[in-house]
Each structure stands twice: as C-alpha cells, then as structure tokens.
Amino acid sequence: MSRTKWRGGAMLAPVPPAIVSCASANGAQTNLITIAWTGILSTVPPRTYISVRPSRHSHKLITESGEFVINLCTAPLARAADFCGMYTGAKVDKLARLGLHAIPSEEVACPSLAESPLSLECRVFDVMHLGSHDMFLADIVAVTVDDSLIAENGKLRLDHADLCAYAHGEYFSLGKRLGAFGFSAVKKKKKHSGKPAK
Ligand SMILES: Cc1cc2nc3c(=O)[nH]c(=O)nc-3n(C[C@H](O)[C@H](O)[C@H](O)COP(=O)(O)O)c2cc1C
User: 9, 124, 135, 161: least surrounded by Cβ within 10 Å?
Assistant: First the structure.
C-alpha cells in the first residue's frame, strides 16, 4: 500500500455543520452562520469553541455580545446550513429568507434556532487569535433539546434526530449505527449450558 503526503491542511472529517446563532448586543439583529470548525474543549466544566474568520459579520456580533448558540444541524436543515454559509448577515436576513424561527434561549440573550433539535447556549470566556480564524472559547451554560427526542426513561435519543455531517465540502446524513460507547469493551455474557460445572 502506498500513501501520498500533502502539506498540513484542515482535513479533519467528518465535522458538524453547526448552525450558530448570534445577535447584536442590543438584540436588534439575530444572525445565523454555519460553522464547521467547532468542538468540545472540556466536559467539566462544559466548554466549547468556534473558530470564526474576523471578516464574518458574525465575528463582530459575537465580539460585541460575548454569546452565541450552537444549533445542531439535521439532514432537513442541510440546505439552510449551506445557505447560512454562503450569504452574510450584513446584507441578508437569513432567518427571514429561510423561513426559520428564532426562539428565546434559557441562559443567554442570543436566541436559539427553533428548527434545530438541540442547542448549546454559550458564553465566551476567551478569544485566541490563531491565524486565519479567531477561536472563541466559551462555557456551555445551558442545553435545550426538543422534547420529542427524550424517551420515557429520560434518555436523550439523538439517534432519532437525523443529524447531518460535513466532510471535505459535502453534506451527509448519518449512516447505520455501528455500536455504542464502550461496545468494544463489553464482555460477552457466558452462556449457561444448564450442565453442572465440572
Ligand atoms: C459547511 C460550512 C462550514 C463553514 N465553517 C466555517 C467556520 O468554521 N468558520 C468560519 O469563519 N466560516 C465558516 N464558514 C463560512 C461562513 O459560514 C460564511 O462566510 C458565512 O456567510 C458568514 O456569515 P456572516 O457574514 O453572516 O457571519 C462555513 C461555511 C460552510 C458552508
């Protein structure tokens, strides 16, 4: 087998095409930006980041307000996510153009996206200027989830959310389930033969 070497590049995949909502400090404008450069920084306390080019309108809004909401993207929202990544909120009211709805968040002034099944409400605690993008590091101060995804036993059924992934310029819905956390470590139960042990 041979492998080709390229110079370093942002080739991590798949990543979430998150639809991030942000708003002006006075709340007059709500904007949506698609962000693929995001992830979790810490579980306890829950912390995340988004990396945003300074040229984005959203960069200005998040710098001003210190808040944003990461709204998970579903397959039915993939087209909207792409649209939010193509047009700037400096010129286009993306929510209105897409017929999407902003709803009040629980802990931050910035609204969440009603059509997204799960939203992470974030408050910025630091900004790192790392190159082409600025990294907004944030505490996840609340999570809201569509009740239809919570089973009777209280378990979150994110597998029912029809989530969307983004890999090297293309959008995908998730494929078949391969296992659950720790499935490699699960010991097989010994079958009881019914015969007495020797
Ligand atoms: C799938 C996808 C992922 C993107 N990821 C990022 C990202 O992580 N950071 C970023 O600054 N721009 C990213 N963009 C580009 C912005 O979403 C795009 O420039 C957007 O129009 C900016 O909107 P705004 O000017 O209203 O903030 C992405 C675009 C797409 C389509």
Answer: 9
